[in-house]
Amino acid sequence: MKLPSPKEYVPATPAGRSFAVTSLINAVGTGLYLAGSAVFFVRSVGLTNAQVGLGLAISGVVGFLTTVPIGALADRFGAKPTLVLLQLWRAGGFVALAFAQGMLSFTLVSCCLAAAEAATQPMTQAVASATTEGTDRTRTMAIVRTVRNFGFSLGALLAAPLLAADRVWTYRGIVLGTAAAFVLSAAMLSRVRTATAATVQKKVGPLTALRDFRDWRYLLLTAVNGVLNLHTTILSVGLSLWALQATHVSAGFLPVLILVNTVMSIVLQVPISRLVDREGGAERALLLGGLALTACCLALALAKAPSSAPVAGAVLLAACVLLTFGEMWQAVGGWELSYEFAPEDSKGVHLSVFSLGGTGQRIVGPALLTSVVIAAGPAGWIGLAVVFAAAGLLVAPVTRMLRHQSAPVPVEEVAS
């Protein structure tokens, strides 16, 4: 695969470039928070591990239920104003979180944050698409994902000295710094001029949009993409737990795997986005993503066999590389297909529905990985490999149904 020139890492339009900068600022704030959140919950809010898990699970369900209604509001008021409001909403939520004490306040604030955070991804996709034209939207999303990975890493580095200070106010400083990043991001986003003309949207109420959604073919695509999105939980939960419990590698090897994933995502996401420039490229990307994740799971199943730590580490490294390719192919295919099959007059609702696949796997995924896949040992990973393979193979028939549904009716048929 030929690496792109530096220019290909820069969005084609001024609006796209401005949006990439706002995404970087947003990611720095998120990385700052993610690096210190676990310590903050325990040391500042005063929660037990079980309370943290319960509060986040409840908030995840709230985020799942509120995404489509917020998407309907975006169709009414516009994706960019909605995203600006979501960023300010998140900023206010993090300010409140900084001073939360106990389980009740933590859960209430987390639910408010989850509603905004779950809706942010589809609104980000809608605004990124509006800053570009044609297939360049997928390259722009790839650039946004690249700068976000860089921003997460930078935010984590900024959190290190604050965590080392080990004071309640430094933990609160991490959360307040995240809030400040969202305010700055919202201010910059409000000045971004979209490159495409606004399309007349259906004016439906938020609850009506949720109740009356009938595009079952789009729901099938959402489900397939949601299954492939399990790579997120494999990286954040499954890979580390399996490596520690079932292989002979040391805990010190785990950051190497995360580093490999991060560097590959930063360097290769933009080149991989070229795949959608070809006819049928988006479907091929999702298929390749499913096959790569299938191979990743098989490699993880094999990682338990070697008694040598270096050999087991090499197998885990191969699994991590396959996981990262699966992640990048899934992202590219998902972006393009979700936008292609979302009707122009209900982009916000459809993109929000599509994002439910990712939100759902974040709710179900950790329990599935820990209680089913890892608990079953190598057989569990083989079973998950079969699921990924099936999801990848379903992409073509599902997209054929969607294209048939959206194909124009022949003139002679209309005349009759």
**How do the helices and strands follow one another from N- to C-terminus?**
HHHHHHHHHHHHHHH
What is the overall number of helices? Answer: 15
Q: Which residue ranges are poorly predicted, with pLDDT under 50 across at least 5 consecutive positions?
A: 409-416
* Mean pLDDT value: 86
Q: Find the CATH superfamily of the largest domain.
A: MFS general substrate transporter like domains
CATH topology of the largest domain: Growth Hormone, Chain: A
Task: Report strand %.
Answer: under 5%
Radius of gyration: 21 Å
Give an account of the 3D structure.
InterPro entries: MFS, MFS_dom, MFS_trans_sf, MFS_Transporters. It is found in: Cell membrane. It holds the Pfam family MFS_1. It is a multi-pass membrane protein. Keywords: Cell membrane, Membrane, Transmembrane, Transmembrane helix, Transport. It is a single chain. With 416 residues, the chain is mainly α. It has 2 domains: 184 residues, Up-down Bundle (Growth Hormone, Chain: A); 194 residues, Growth Hormone, Chain: A, CATH 1.20.1250.20. Helix content is 80%, strand content 0%. It contains 15 helices and no strands. Helix 2 runs antiparallel to helix 3. It is globular and about 60 Å long. The termini are far apart.
State the main characteristics:
416 residues; mainly alpha; Growth Hormone, Chain: A; 2 domains
Write the layout of secondary structure elements.
Blueprint: H1 14-45, H2 49-77, H3 79-98, H4 102-130, H5 136-165, H6 168-189, H7 206-211, H8 216-228, H9 231-246, H10 254-273, H11 281-302, H12 309-340, H13 347-373, H14 378-406, H15 411-415
Helix pairs in contact: 1-5, 1-6, 2-3, 2-4, 2-13, 3-4, 3-6, 4-5, 4-13, 5-6, 5-10, 5-12, 8-12, 8-13, 8-14, 9-12, 9-13, 10-12, 11-12, 11-14
